[in-house]
Design brief:
Structural class: mainly alpha
Radius of gyration: 18 Å
Helix content: 55-70%
C-alpha cells in the first residue's frame, strides 16, 4: 500500500512559528496564520461581490480565494518562515527565495499520488488565469499580519508598532476598495475586548 505523505507534511504547519525575529507576546503558528488569511480572503472576495462588482462582471469565487489562501504558505513547511526584512532585503534575495519556494512546492507535490497532483499544483503554483484571485490572497495575508501587529500592541508589546504602520500603508497603497472597506468597517473590532464585540 502506498504511503503518500503530502497531507502529513501540511499538518506540520502548526510547528512553524512566524515572526521569528520579533519578541512576541503571543506566538503565532503558520496554521493559525493561514486559517485567518483564508477567512480574510473569503471576506474580501465577498465584499467585492456584494459592493464593488461592476455591471456585467463575473463574481470573484470567494471559496477558491479562501482555498488558495489556506495553502499560500505551504512551502514554508520545508523552508520555515523567512523573516520579511530578510526576504525583501534586495531583488536578488527576493528572486532567490522565490526559487526556493518553487522548489519546495515541487518537492511537496511529488508526495501526492498522480491522480491528485494536478489539483494541488493549481493550488500551490499560481497560474495566469487566477492572478486576480492571488491579489485577494496577498491582501488577506497583509491584513492577517496587520491584525497580528495590532494584537501585539494591544498586549503592550511595542515591538510591532513600526510593522503595523508599514502594513497599514501597504494595504492602503494596494488601492483595493474591498481592503479599504474592511479596514474602515471591521478592523477596529480587533481592538475591542470580547464583551465589546457582542
Amino acid at each position: 500500500m502506498p504511503n503518500h505523505s503530502f497531507f502529513a507534511m501540511l499538518s506540520r504547519m502548526k510547528y512553524i512559528s512566524r515572526w521569528a525575529l520579533m519578541r512576541n507576546a503571543t506566538n503565532e503558528s503558520l496554521s493559525e496564520h493561514t486559517l485567518e488569511t483564508a477567512i480574510l480572503a473569503h471576506a474580501l472576495a465577498t465584499l467585492h461581490n456584494a459592493r464593488f462588482l461592476g455591471e456585467g462582471d463575473a463574481p470573484v469565487p470567494a471559496e477558491r480565494a479562501a482555498t488558495l489562501a489556506l495553502l499560500h504558505d505551504v512551502p514554508e513547511v520545508l523552508t520555515g518562515d523567512l523573516p520579511t526584512p530578510v526576504k525583501y532585503h534586495s531583488e536578488h534575495l527576493r528572486a532567490a527565495y522565490k526559487q526556493v519556494e518553487a522548489s519546495a512546492s515541487a518537492s511537496l507535490l511529488r508526495l501526492l499520488p498522480d491522480d491528485l497532483r494536478d489539483t494541488y499544483t493549481s493550488l500551490l503554483i499560481p497560474n495566469r488565469d487566477e492572478l486576480h484571485l492571488w491579489c485577494y490572497v496577498k491582501a488577506a495575508d497583509k491584513l492577517s499580519a496587520l491584525i497580528k501587529c495590532m494584537e501585539e500592541r494591544k498586549a503592550g508589546n511595542r515591538e510591532f508598532i513600526r510593522a503595523e504602520e508599514s502594513l497599514a500603508k501597504m494595504l492602503r497603497d494596494m488601492r483595493m476598495p474591498e481592503v479599504d472597506c474592511f479596514m474602515e468597517e471591521f478592523l477596529s473590532a480587533y481592538e475591542q475586548p470580547l464583551d465589546g464585540m457582542m
